[in-house]
Structures are given as structure tokens and as C-alpha cells.
Amino acid sequence: QSNLIQNEQAIVISNIDSFLAEFEANEIRAEGNYVGKIISVTERVDSINEGVFGPYLVLGEEYSFSGINCNFKSENQNQFIALNSGDIVTVKGKVSDYILGSVVLDNCVLA
């Protein structure tokens, strides 16, 4: 399914702070606007992690309590070997949730 996302039209998020502020201001409205939609965001990598279901990146400012968690398929793990915290990346993924100040994207791909 991640290959499909690569070819899908995405909502471009040009300002991560404004995007997250929409969720902080009214989570119900923001989820209605974005959950299930494909977004594309270019942002700083805060951390690169291995989760139970595969690798994920956290995008946003260092030491921030909010950001974007980008979940990738396990078969895409090799593309993270050259990445470091602080790098700027463009990620496309499907918005699935808003948890504890972070927007969660699934089926992500590096664009």
C-alpha cells in the first residue's frame, strides 16, 4: 500500500506548527479534515526509531512534545540507514490519528 501512497495526490503541509495547532485548537474538526487523507510534509527528523510494527520517524523540533509520527513498513527499513536526527526529509503518509500532541501517519514513504 505504501507504493500507492507514493503516486497519490497529497495535501501539502507547508507549516508543521500551523498544522499541529489545528489539532490543538479543535481535535474533532482537525480529525474530520485530515484523518484518512494523504499528506506530504517536509520537516526536520527528530528521531529514528524501531517500533513493534516497523520503523518510524518523528518529525518536528528537538525536545518538543508535539510532532508527526511517521510509520513505515518493515521492508522500507534500509532507507533509514543514511538518515540522522536533524536531517530534513519529505514524507508522504495517510493521517490515522492524533495522540498526545502528535499526528500519526501510516504507510509512509520518503518522497
Kindly summarize this structure in a few lines:
Helix content is 22%, strand content 44%.
What is the secondary structure topology, with strand pairs?
Elements: H1 2-7, E1 11-13, H2 16-25, H3 27-34, E2 38-51, E3 54-59, E4 67-71, E5 88-99, E6 102-110
Helix pairs in contact: 2-3
Task: Record keyword descriptors for this entry.
5-stranded mixed barrel; 22% helix; alpha/beta; 6 strands; 111 residues
Model description:
The structure is a single chain. The protein is of the alpha/beta class and 111 residues long. It contains three helices and six strands. The chain has a five-stranded mixed barrel. Helix 2 (16-25) packs across helix 3.
How many beta-strand elements? 6
State the distance separating the first and last CA atoms.
Answer: 15 Å
- Uncertain residue ranges: none
Which strand order do you get reading across the main beta sheet? 2-3-4-6-5
Helix content: 10-25%
The biggest sheet, with number of strands, parallel, antiparallel or mixed sense and barrel status, is: 5 strands, mixed, barrel
